[in-house]
User: Which sequence fits this backbone?
């Protein structure tokens, strides 16, 4: 069997870089240089893999050349490779941002190896072909994120991390119990084999129990109501430069795992969990956005908004029509880009004004009109104002929901549209407080784009690059929508996935 | 034997969750440990307990014939133990730091991340 180089590179580049970073401890210039190259190469490798998947279909790698279904398999289908490209791009952006954000040499030395272990864990999560392997990748990713949240060591960070660690340990426990149940029922760990054999199980109640365990476990990671409380308690505590990648992708890994599980292994259509998921999606959207409305801190508002946006993605999955699931995937891409950009801008505002509290900020429209413009683009996109990306995501979801015809689905979709208005309200609040009202500390010297680029080069570059990508997707969304459609054509896609994993050797 | 182990697994899960819901941060780590023991025992049980028949192929035969003890869950437990151990070590260091920084071991008082100011 030939080796799939693109898959190997996607995993080995971050792993080797992380090890090199440990070896080069303290030589920060060299570390930063190698890290920069490595993130670029990693992005190139994922793009290569994506191209291969587009051209030749699902890419497989059997580690140790075991027959399929026995050893560890890495599987890249369109959805996985799209997530991989997205995570590699965000890793590059977060890297630029971080190296210009982190001033302390010690923090940088701890940050760099852990950052690459995080990328390693993320890439593995998207590639994992069996459930236990998925668990191990999850842990690689989580342990890295635990460390990232605690670098810097102020009181809030420790308090937030303790809650974050505790809830994630609980989530991993549930995940393992679910895996054990499915193994006991089917005798497989490979996702495709489980998917094939699960309908043949004699007691059809047990898969429901296993699915519930997975739903709770992934639901904690994705921050679904009522399992989201760790998120607003953690995300605003650590410096943005350190945790940007975690903030951007961790909850979306939960969404990825939910989508993978409930389309491949346990088709959601017509089960009781579908109704539960729809109701929870609605509650997640509403409660997230209401929580945001009550906050008076830049990052806390954004954190609650993540919860609210997660509701949209879960809604897309729960509606369970091809269009809605494609919409959900599109929404993930949109949200990772836009939400991270807003966090980046918040960090940039903090660097300029030294605060995240809305009360202490102000006058940035005078001080840095460029930053204000970049904020407006992202905020409008998050709200869903046409023609920006949020509009296309919400359009796909709403159309999927209204076409479905079921009254519960239509109700939830209607709620999602109302939540957009409340999103606009919080964005307006940030706009009024941070940019529009006069600065409480008096007039500040003006910073144009060149000054900004000089003061915080990496940070501004990544904000600009993400904004350009968001605008590009906004004005030409068709390619991305097609990719999303293709990767989530649930009925044919599922059979295709199972066949290609099982069918190569026998 | 299976029924005893099943009840024990249930008890461990219950005890672990109960301890995690406590206010003391030391009880939190004990709860986390109990939960991981419970999970490991659960994985062990799910493979059905077979006694005295290791998964070794008899010299006279080509393939493994049942009944034999399923080795895969044991491999899974081994991995889960190692990962669990790593995480427990991290949590122990973390709660020590939390105690040093905040001066309290009461979870109720660790709420400065939730206040609206």
Assistant:
């Amino acid at each position: 069997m030939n080796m799939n180089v693109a898959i190997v590179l996607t995993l080995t580049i971050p792993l080797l870089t992380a090890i090199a970073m440990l070896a080069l401890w303290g030589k920060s210039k060299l570390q930063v240089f190698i890290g920069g190259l490595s993130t670029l190469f990693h992005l190139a490798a994922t793009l290569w893999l994506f191209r291969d998947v587009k051209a030749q279909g699902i890419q497989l790698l059997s580690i140790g050349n075991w027959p399929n279904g026995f050893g560890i398999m890495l599987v890249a289908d369109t959805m996985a490779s799209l997530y991989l490209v997205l995570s590699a791009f965000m890793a590059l952006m977060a890297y630029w941002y971080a190296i210009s954000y982190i001033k302390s040499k010690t923090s940088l030395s701890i940050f760099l190896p852990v950052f690459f272990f995080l990328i390693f864990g993320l890439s593995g999560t998207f590639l994992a072909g069996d459930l236990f392997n998925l668990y191990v990748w999850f842990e690689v990713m989580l342990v890295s994120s635990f460390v990232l949240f605690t670098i810097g060591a102020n009181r809030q960070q420790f308090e937030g991390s303790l809650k974050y660690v505790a809830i994630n340990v609980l989530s991993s426990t549930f995940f393992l119990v679910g895996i054990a149940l499915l193994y006991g029922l089917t005798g497989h760990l490979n996702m495709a084999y489980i998917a094939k054999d699960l309908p043949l199980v004699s007691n059809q109640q047990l898969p429901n129990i296993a699915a519930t365990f997975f739903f709770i476990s992934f639901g904690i990671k994705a921050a679904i109501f009522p399992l989201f409380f760790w998120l607003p308690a953690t995300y605003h505590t650590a410096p943005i430069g350190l945790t940007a990648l975690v903030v951007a992708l961790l909850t979306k890994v939960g969404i990825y795992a939910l989508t993978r599980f409930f389309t491949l292994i346990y088709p959601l259509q017509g089960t009781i969990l579908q109704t539960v998921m729809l109701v929870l999606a609605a509650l997640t959207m509403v409660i997230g956005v209401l929580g945001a409305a009550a906050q008076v801190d830049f990052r806390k508002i954004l954190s609650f908004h993540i919860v609210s946006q997660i509701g949209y993605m879960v809604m897309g999955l729960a509606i369970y029509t091809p269009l809605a699931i494609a919409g959900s995937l599109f929404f993930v891409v949109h949200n990772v880009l836009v939400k991270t950009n807003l966090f980046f801008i918040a960090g940039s505002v903090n660097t300029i004004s030294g605060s995240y509290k809305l009360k202490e900020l102000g006058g940035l429209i005078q001080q840095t009109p460029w930053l204000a413009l970049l904020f407006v683009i992202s905020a409008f996109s998050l709200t869903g104002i046409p023609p920006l990306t949020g509009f296309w995501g919400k359009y796909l979801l709403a159309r999927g929901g209204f076409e479905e015809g079921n009254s519960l689905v239509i109700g939830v979709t209607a709620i999602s549209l109302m939540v957009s208005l409340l999103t606009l309200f919080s964005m307006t609040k940030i706009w009024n407080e941070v940019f529009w009202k006069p600065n409480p500390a008096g007039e500040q010297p003006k910073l144009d784009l060149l000054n900004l680029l000089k003061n915080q080069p990496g940070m501004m570059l990544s904000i600009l690059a993400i904004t350009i990508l968001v605008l590009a997707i906004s004005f030409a969304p068709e390619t991305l929508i097609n990719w999303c459609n293709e990767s989530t054509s649930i009925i044919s896609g599922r059979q295709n996935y199972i066949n290609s994993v099982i069918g190569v050797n026998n | 034997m299976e029924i005893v182990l099943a009840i024990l697994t249930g008890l461990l899960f219950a005890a672990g969750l109960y301890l995690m819901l406590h206010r003391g941060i030391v009880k939190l780590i004990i709860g986390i440990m109990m939960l991981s023991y419970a999970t490991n025992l659960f994985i062990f049980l799910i493979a059905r307990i077979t006694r005295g028949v290791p998964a070794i192929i008899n010299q006279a035969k080509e393939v493994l014939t049942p009944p034999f003890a399923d080795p895969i869950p044991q491999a899974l437990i081994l991995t889960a133990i190692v990962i669990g151990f790593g995480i427990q070590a991290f949590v122990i260091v973390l709660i020590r730091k939390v105690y040093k920084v905040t001066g309290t071991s009461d979870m109720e008082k660790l709420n400065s991340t939730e206040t609206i100011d």
About this structure: Chain B has a mean pLDDT of 87.
